[in-house]
Amino acid sequence: MPEFRFQNWRINYVEAGQGEPLVFLHNGGNDHQIWEHQLAHFAATHRVIATDHLGFGASDKPRVELTLPLYGEMVAALVDELALAPVTLIGNCMGSAMAFHYTLQHPDKVRRLILCNITSEKILLAGPLGAVYQQFAASREGRDAYSAQVEATGLPREETDRQLRSQYGATPPDDPAFSDYIFALCNSPGQQRSLFNVLSNFDDYRTPDAFILPANFPPACVIWGQENFILPATAGEEFCTRLQPARQEFLPGCGHLLMREKPAEVNQLMAAFLATPATQAADMTSGLKG
C-alpha cells in the first residue's frame, strides 16, 4: 500500500483509476476494505482513494488521543499531499464526521460531500454505544486497562461475527471472505485500542451537532441505513433537518454498512449525485434552505 506522512506517522491508503478524485473514509473499527465495491465500481471513471485512518488497518497506531480535530488534520494532510482539491469526500460514521469537519474549515477545497450514517456525540448517544462512550470518557485508565485485556486475550471468531452482524440490517450479505477479513483485522495489534480510544473522545465530535454552514459550503448527499442499530435513522432524519442536503436517502433493509449490504444500489445513488452538476446541486440545497 502507498503511504503518506502525517505528523511523522505513516498513513496507508489504496488508490486506483484516473479522473476526478473521490476520497473514501471508513468508520471506526474497520479500514478501507468496507469500500471495496465502491472502489471497484468508481475506479472506471474516477481517481479513487481510500485511507486506513490513523490508528486503524495498516496505518500507524500511536498511543495518542484520537480526536475529530486530529482526524480533520489528517484529511487536510491527505488532500494537500496528493493535490486532490477540489475533492469529493465520501465517508461512513466517523469518516463522515471527518469529512464534514474538514469541509466546514475548507469548503473551497471540497467539490461534494456524500455522508453515510454520519456520527456525532448526540447521534452516538442515541444508540447503544452511547453508554460505552460515557464509561470510557469517565475513566481513560479504565479504557486503557480494558483495551489491553482485550488485545492480550484476542477476540474469538464468534465475537467478531457478532459485531459484524450488528452492523447489518435485517438481511446480512453472504460474504464469508469479509467475515474472515474482519476477524483478522479486529485481532491485529492496536486495532481495538484505537477503537476504544475513539469511543472515549466523542466530546470532540460535536461539529455535526452545532454548525453554521459557510456560504460556499458544497452540495451534500446523506445516505442512511433505515435499520441502523448503531446510529438510529431517527437521528439521521434530525441531522438532515438541520443540514438540508441536496439529496437524502434512507435505505430500507440496510444497517451501518450499507455500502456492503446493497452495493449496487449505493453505487447508483452515489453515481447519480456525482453526475449532478455541482452548481445545480448547490441550487437545490439553497432552495431547501430558503
Summarize the structure in words.
The protein is of the alpha/beta class and 290 residues long. The protein has a single domain, classed as Alpha/Beta hydrolase fold, catalytic domain (Rossmann fold, 3-Layer(aba) Sandwich). It contains 13 helices and eight strands. The protein has helices spanning 36-42, 68-81, 94-105, 121-125, 129-138, 140-153, 157-166, 176-186, 191-200, 233-243, 258-261, 263-275, 278-289, and strands at residues 3-6, 9-16, 21-25, 47-51, 87-92, 110-116, 220-225, 247-251. It has an eight-stranded mixed β-sheet with strand order 1-2-4-3-5-6-7-8, sandwiched between helices. Residues 285-290 have low confidence and may be disordered.
What is this structure's SSE topology?
Blueprint: E1 3-6, E2 9-16, E3 21-25, H1 36-42, E4 47-51, H2 68-81, E5 87-92, H3 94-105, E6 110-116, H4 121-125, H5 129-138, H6 140-153, H7 157-166, H8 176-186, H9 191-200, E7 220-225, H10 233-243, E8 247-251, H11 258-261, H12 263-275, H13 278-289
Parallel strand pairs: 3-4, 3-5, 5-6, 6-7, 7-8
Antiparallel strand pairs: 1-2, 2-4
Helix pairs in contact: 1-12, 2-3, 5-6, 5-9, 6-9, 7-8
Any descriptors?
290 residues; eight-stranded mixed β-sheet; disordered C terminus; Rossmann fold; 13 helices; globular; alpha/beta
Mean pLDDT comes to 95
Helical percent range?
40-55%
Structural class per helix/strand content?
alpha/beta
Number of helices: 13
Short description:
The chain is an alpha/beta fold and 290 residues long.
